[in-house]
Automatic annotation (TrEMBL):
It comes from the Bacteria. SUPFAM superfamilies: 4Fe-4S ferredoxins. PANTHER family: ADENYLYLSULFATE REDUCTASE, BETA SUBUNIT, BLR5484 PROTEIN. InterPro entries: 4Fe4S_Fe-S-bd (IPR017896), 4Fe4S_Fe_S_CS (IPR017900), Fe-S_Ferredoxin (IPR050572). Keywords: 4Fe-4S, Iron, Iron-sulfur, Metal-binding. This is Ferredoxin. The keyword Iron applies. The keyword Iron applies. Residues 6-35, 36-66 form the 4Fe-4S ferredoxin-type domain. It comes from Thermosipho affectus.
Length: 75
């Protein structure tokens, strides 16, 4: 069974650059970017713990599990 993979989606229209996400990320997937805005350079380090998503006061972060479909759907 393959390791689950996740993608960090940040809605910059809602984000106020408070820094909670990159200060609590245990894997440092989310880092401090320009003007204190969160940024992600490598999504593969995300473990899907949801700390950033749950602690974001602006609801600006979504952690999405990446699923790879094997084969084609019948129908």
């Amino acid at each position: 069974m393959a390791k689950k993979q996740f993608k960090v989606k940040i809605n910059y229209n809602w984000c106020k650059s408070c820094g909670i996400c990159y200060n609590t990320c245990p894997t440092k997937t989310i880092i401090k970017g320009e003007m204190n805005r969160p940024k992600v350079e490598d999504h593969t380090t995300c473990i899907g713990c949801l700390m950033c998503e749950n602690l974001c006061p602006d609801f600006a972060i979504d952690i999405v599990e990446i699923t790879e479909e094997v084969g084609e759907k019948n129908g």
